[in-house]
Amino acid sequence: MVHFSNSLTKLLAELQKLPGVGEKTALRLAFHLLKSPENANALAESLQDVTSRVRFCSVCFGITEEDPCWLCTAERDDSAICVVEEPQDLLAVERTRAFRGRYHVLQGALSPLNGITPSQLRIAELIKRLEGGGVREVVLATNFTVEGEATALYLARLIKPLGIRVTRLAHGIPLGSDLEYVDAATVQRALEGRSEV
Amino acid sequence: MVHFSNSLTKLLAELQKLPGVGEKTALRLAFHLLKSPENANALAESLQDVTSRVRFCSVCFGITEEDPCWLCTAERDDSAICVVEEPQDLLAVERTRAFRGRYHVLQGALSPLNGITPSQLRIAELIKRLEGGGVREVVLATNFTVEGEATALYLARLIKPLGIRVTRLAHGIPLGSDLEYVDAATVQRALEGRSEV
């Protein structure tokens, strides 16, 4: 049997905790890092640096080094809040440059089967922000998964009574798609949401 | 524009130095690690641990924590040495359990275009081991790439005059292959190397 040194076995186990990294990829990454110890050390320092500096913004719960984060302090439209599940979803929206309001990161989605209930998400904090006044629209940009849809529905019911407009990202055909390869449910939603040319 | 904190930008840059990790994967890994700082710190410690403990075996130039490595000290057949390019290639051979001899890791392959000449590989060390006597066969298990083949040819010319048998891994059809999808050159080599049933 192949016998790895203890420290290498440990590294392989840690690498395999990363998303999309299995046994083979972990070996490939480990050997790459062993070949360039300076890269391995730089990565290690960088990891420690990030975990010690990066925290959650106390306003939007996105990730930041300064609290509140740059998105919460920048000159932006205070009347709209875009609600997303995770910090990376915030990036996906922000990259479009089509939204100039504020953000709120739920840090997850409702999933009773996995024990994720409203109290584990940043929902109370969102409602508190909305009750502060000034917000006219909440854009629900949770994922289009069962959990994300359920979370959007839950939030809509909670927010509408506050007299705030609640919107959801449009369903439709992704840009550049070949219609024949798009699933029927998406085409159906695209038909329902069709617009005048 | 999306604005990352300095420490996160640094981490993304370090992650992108890993093989097969681009911008998107780096983001995915970084956000995963941000969500579980204990994993990030364990990975960082593990990296530092490995780079400080793991070194090259002074006999076979594989990676090890103790010098000489367990493969060089184990009860094995001293009369055969399997020559590979990298430590991970050694694992590929060792996993088969079909070779019970010793190993020698060249730490690369000849590649004049990339400036890799014989003096940058552990070839002098291999010859010294062979001159020590007792070795009857050298199995060349360098990769079947242009560089690997050139290295095998170079080594064969160097070793044969020492009166040592030099062999190379067989070419042929990989197990489980559909013949129609195997490239012609491989089928040709398999035909040339055909054996009695």
SSE arrangement:
The structure is a homodimer of 197-residue chains.
Chain A: H1 6-15, H2 23-35, H3 37-53, E1 55-56, E2 63-64, H4 70-73, E3 80-84, H5 87-95, E4 102-105, H6 123-131, E5 137-140, H7 146-159, E6 165-168, H8 184-192
Parallel strand pairs in A: 3-4, 3-5, 5-6
Antiparallel strand pairs in A: 1-2
Helix pairs in contact in A: 1-2
If you had to describe this structure to a student in words, what would you say it looks like?
With 197 residues, chain A is of the alpha/beta class. Chain A has a domain of 121 residues: 3-Layer(aba) Sandwich (Dna Topoisomerase Vi A Subunit, Chain: A, domain 2), CATH 3.40.1360. Chain A contains 8 helices and 6 strands. Chain A has a 4-stranded parallel β-sheet. In chain A, strands 1-2 form a two-stranded antiparallel ribbon. In chain A, a hairpin with a 6-residue loop joins strand 1 and strand 2. The mean pLDDT of chain A is 91. The interface between A and B is large, with 50 and 50 residues.
Please estimate the helix content of chain A. 40-55%
In the CATH hierarchy, the third-tier topology of the domain at 77-197 in chain A is known as Dna Topoisomerase Vi A Subunit, Chain: A, domain 2
Span between N and C termini of chain A? 67 Å
Placed side by side, the strands forming the largest sheet of chain A appear as: 4-3-5-6
Instruction: Note the total helix count of chain A.
Output: 8
Radius of gyration of chain A, in Å, reads: 21 Å
How much β-strand is present in the residues of chain A? 5-15%
According to DSSP, the number of beta strands of chain A is: 6
Shape of chain A: globular
**Average pLDDT metric of chain A:** 91
Order of helices and strands of chain A: HHHEEHEHEHEHEH
Q: What oligomeric state best describes the polypeptide chains here?
A: homodimer
Could you say what the CATH architecture of the domain at 77-197 in chain A is? 3-Layer(aba) Sandwich
Main sheet attributes: strand count, strand direction, barrel closure of chain A? 4 strands, parallel
Q: Which class of secondary structure composition applies to the elements of chain A? A: alpha/beta
